[in-house]
């Protein structure tokens, strides 16, 4: 029977869609245009029963199509799809289905001999505290091992812990490079009383000995040795990092044919330097560096020190990257270079030294000298063994330092890309320990000087001994210090600015006028000054905060620049530069489309009642504060957490901003010394304005965060509070929240239409908020515990004890006066 017109249209659309995909893959896709076309590309969507296409147009096949399942697969495994409540930003393919293994399970792939990429895709399906594979499988309790042709790839591995520790995407790709001789056997082995799982398997062939022959010079230089390192053809490797330095992520389809993923280096790079933008860069690949080595976009973007007007400043510091790795393994470090600036076209214009783990890897690096000309890329391979002296997960450090021995025309460095690969040990093992969700960042800004500068410490020892032996000078030094104290205070601001000039972009006031089109577009105003929208010369949108010419020495400005210059986190606003010109002070940071949290909620009434959206934002803020407290070398206490100081980007990712009142202190310090109270009434912790409640510490930010999330879900809404309790304005407002929790009611904000899961999420936010606003700082959880509570289940949370005291608004005016930060936007 012929289909009715209403049914014919969807069929036609489906046919056209399939035709488009086939045309894209065969004619306009990656395989047709990339400089390298793999002999074998196998994409397995595990647990799926039909062909599917990912967002890049690649065709993923079901397991049955390749006939790779063992004969007993129905008994040793089962399939499952992710929860229908999947995260909207998670790719559908290959992450919406899984094969789950009850016992040892081996895929057998018939392959041609040669080196292959093996990529294993995982998605623990962690969604707002719930794991969505149904009652038969929980990814949190899944621990397993993976082996391949005699190599151990993973041992006691937890995808859930790894994803949480990364604080990145909810999905995970583990990439390995293995030599194949006669097919490939991939075995999953669940731990005792556990299950194993996998979402997708990729197998992609590569050029022969691509990662074993060495760099463009066919050498692998062993750091600390005069003998080159040899990678045998029986070696397996794991990709630990593949970064596009100074640029954005390059996805699989944007790669040069092997479907690699190049991530941004923002998380590994210690702040400083510049990332110039150059239009229409044409990379001139060579026989030694073919086009498949790295995409053109990797070689077209880079980081350098900048400071073109004052290049001698670059001699005072290094450009440094820190890469957290597993101890006890050899690593292949591949560095990519390409000079693209018009000003650098000849040898001896930019010369620098490469240090790896504080050892000289290459003393004289001149990209133009090695490559033979401008826009010709080169790449170098180094081998380094990382021991366990600094623990099981140390940082592998890479430093670039300007070399002035040959009087180059500029003191600067450059780096375009980094790849770090782990080599298997003598037992064929590549597996490291599971990553724990971080209490501190892996990127500890340990700015040690290179090897050739370490002799300075011996000189200092001699000086101190000499000074100590001349006791008669002590009195003179003390008197001199007292007489110069006032002068030092005056000069502190200028010294700080000189330091920041070495690390950040410094803009003139005239440049800011050009960026903001004479300050024509106002984003917001506050007691600090005004925020303007603008565009850099590369088209990037920015926000420019111009501070008022406040009296004093500009301590708030220095605080903000100092604090933000030490941070690099997805939930912390990125500092791009600053201006310090006479009385003109301004900060340039990334532009965020949705403005501040209070603006976002007021503009988006429907989203303001969306529990899941609010939860995502609240969790992101918690992670940002956790990073400030534990992820920086110096703990940063913000002291002004409120909706106006939380910015929201286009993906609804929250970012903590406005560090004008922040205070830096050592992590070992449990308390903070403050002369005056600082913060905003309504969010300021009680111990800040009255010491009767306890000592001021990083727990003050915890209190402000608790008030913030209670505010977000409407627990502090004036109309609601006064409706429920007309006397709430003069009492400790959580009184009525405790009463509602006891009655099992907390839908006063969202109404009765929300689902059971949404009610539980809202209740979890309320309970966490109540823990955070405990009057006594010692009763509040630290921010790492707050993140754990927010990510965990509601059943694991206890309702905190109801405070016996009341905080009346009447006590606030009697406290020391607040700083200007109470008006900050």
From TrEMBL:
Localization in the cell: Membrane
Annotated Gene3D superfamilies: Galactose-binding lectin (2.60.120.430), Phosphorylase Kinase, domain 1 (3.30.200.20), Transferase(Phosphotransferase) domain 1 (1.10.510.10)
Leader peptide range in chain numbering: none
Domain Protein kinase: 517-794
Domain of life (superkingdom): Eukaryota
Residues that bind ATP: 545
Keywords: ATP-binding, Glycoprotein, Kinase, Membrane, Nucleotide-binding, Serine/threonine-protein kinase, Signal, Transferase, Transmembrane, Transmembrane helix
Name used for this protein in its record: Probable receptor-like protein kinase At5g39030
Organism, scientific name: Camelina sativa
Encoding gene, per UniProt annotation: LOC104719565
